Amino acid sequence: MPFGLCNAPGTFQRLMQACLSDQFFQCVLCYLDDILVYSKSFEEHLTNLSLVFDRLRKFGLKIKPSKCELFKPEVKYLGHIVTRDGVMTDPGKVDAVKKWPTPKDVKELRSYLGFCSFYRRFVPGFSKIAGPLHALVANCLKERKNNQRAAFTWQTEHQQAFDTLKSKLCSRPILAYADFKLPFEVEIDASFLGLGAVLSQVQNGKKCVIAYASRTLRGPERNMEKYSSMKLELLGMKWAITEKFRDYLLGSTFVIYTDNNPLAHLKSAKLDAVSQRWVGALAAFEFSVAYKPGKSNQAADALSRRPVDKVQNNHVSSANYVHTARMTTLPANLQRVPTTENPVHVSALTSLPMFPGYDNTQLAELQQKDKSIARLLHYITTNQKPTPYERAHESEDVVLLCRQMNKIKTINGLLYRVTEDKQKQLILPRVLRNDVLVACHDQAGHQGSNKTLGLVRSRCYWPKMTEHVTSWCDQCDRCVKAKMGPRIKEPLRSMIATRPNEILAIDFTILEKDTTGRENVLVMTDVFSKYTQAVATRNQTAETTAKVLVREWFTKLEFPSVYTLIKAETSNHHLFVPYVPCTK
Q: Where do the Reverse transcriptase domain residues begin and end (predicted)?
């Protein structure tokens, strides 16, 4: 693998995933050549280290002892300090923030904001604190874009934001790891300055912060006439749960603490259309709402009431994502490996095992132990297909496998099904099916059955594979909770009138042109009495329709209670009355 090429990091990462992916989030974390092995005890750590060393040796990889740190209670990893209690900022990098001079131009300010943003997950309300600095950068860039001389004016509010960021980063806060076996707590608060939320857990009798989130209100949300205190608090709840903390809370039980007492009675509250849509978005989550006075809800209250000049894109501050219990990287055996002309590179990649954690010898043993595959091997060895009598006494899986005998080949001691496009599918033993489904669906973004089947089919084969994949996706608990139900369409109903001139139905039709060139006919029908009038018109515009209705019906009879337009495909209506009750 030559270094310096743009695809070299991706190639190396695929190699590391093939080597260790079955141990990811179990005892190993890996980013390129940075490998972190963690354990709960010393004896377990020795076992995990032995496993990692054996894997590296098997793949022909070497490690440099001088770059290794063994048996440490805390280590530096990807610019962070990882401990048993949580994740902290690297003091060596934070020292650079302490000594950072006051920026003199936009370039220096952007450099400072970029450096601080790397650790923004550790600063509650980072975007609010840095709001004046971002506003200064935006104004300078806007003036530069308009070919004006950018005036970099450093004021008191900018210095305060600059110093606040320094102090927040130098305080070295600790964010704990999420334990998905324990319930979560979400504290929310909202004011007309912004929204704030804190995600936490009680671990070992101690309350631990998992993530911070905050943002300012957008333009329409600042309208105090439309957004009451309860509606604003409901907005904060919907934003925190469905947007910022969704990955933590979906499928988990949690309690929401709010200082708005009416929100605690959300199930019985009378809500408008917008609020009902927000509550509908929360239906996928399992939670309860509890009232907590503002003086006891200080963390979220402070995040929502810090003033800022300009709305910024906000970011959830949380512990390093690699410590969550969910794998988001597809295992190497399910990824396409790019080809290259480098013979050393090709040999290194093609020697990777088809299934991470198992070499060819282990896979061959599993195939031989599988009853269905063992019977298939028997028929392949004897070079005879089963007779009708034998098929009647074989299991359904064996019969289906024997139908594929013409496509099954033995390669390196393993049975593969070779498709028409020369794609090799490993005949998968029954004991590995669930592992493949977990890797292709649960750990691959919970995609639909078709995409999951495509991932499985690109590497594996077993009888009734389509049926099993579809059943797995349909029974996935997380997919069922997150999937929106089918939209129920309003049924078609007949128009029922109880008296004459209650409902007027109008429609256009086209006939042959008369002597004046008119071919459009407006048909007006009273639904109750079936009394009908037809008037020829020059076109089908809204203005013409309104004039005919007034002249031929409204002035001669009376205004109906309801008039319905059965709109034709050729009609062109844009005119409407100024008073629309449905929007009031």
A: 1-82
Query: How far apart are the C-alpha atoms of 133 and 130, rounded to whole Å?
Result: 5
How far is CA 109 from its chain centroid? 32
Q: CA 3 to CA 10: how far, in whole Å?
A: 11
Compute how many other C-beta atoms are within 10 angstroms of the C-beta atom of residue 558.
10
Domain ranges of the chain: 8-71, 88-170, 184-322, 359-482, 503-583
- Tell me which architecture the domain covering 184-322 has in CATH: 2-Layer Sandwich (3.30)
Q: Are 402 and 379 in contact (CB under 8 A)?
A: yes
Residues 6 or more apart whose Cβ sits within 8 Å of residue 463:
372, 396, 397, 400, 401
Q: How far apart are CA 491 and CA 493, in angstroms?
A: 6
156-194 as b/e: b if 16+ CB within 10 A: eebeebbebbbebbeeebebbbbeeeeebbbbbbbbeeb
- CA distance readout (Å), 238 to 134, 189, 264, 308: 26, 12, 14, 22
Distance (Å, whole) CA 570 – CA 25? 61
